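Progress against Task 2.4 (sequence-to-structure conversion) is shown through the following example record, which the project officer requested during the mid-term review.
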Amino acid sequence: AARQARSASAANVEWDPFMGFVYRQPRQHLASKTWAVTSNNWDAVLTSDRKPWIIFVMSAYRCPRCEELLPHFNKAAKVLQSAAHFGRLLHEDERAITRQLRIRNVPQIIFLHKRNFHTLDGSLT
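Structure tokens generated for the chain above:
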């Protein structure tokens, strides 16, 4: 109830289980240099022309392969932050986006630039 009251007071804020409150525009998680990608900011991600996006599609629940890959993804985000945006997408929470990207399993990494995307599945990551 308290979380809903806090999020209702700020119309441009949503809740992310990994990062706490997240603004509708992509907002950076400072510790890992990654962004929360949600249906609320998906259009901003798609129309971003300056730098490509590398998006880690993961499960919000216990996923051993996701948990194993996440520290490596965060490290890459820190090292390559000047070359690309790095985002995290929760598979279960963003079904419309995962259907659009044809995501069937996790973890997957999506390379997205100027509305074109390429998917690497868990066997390649």
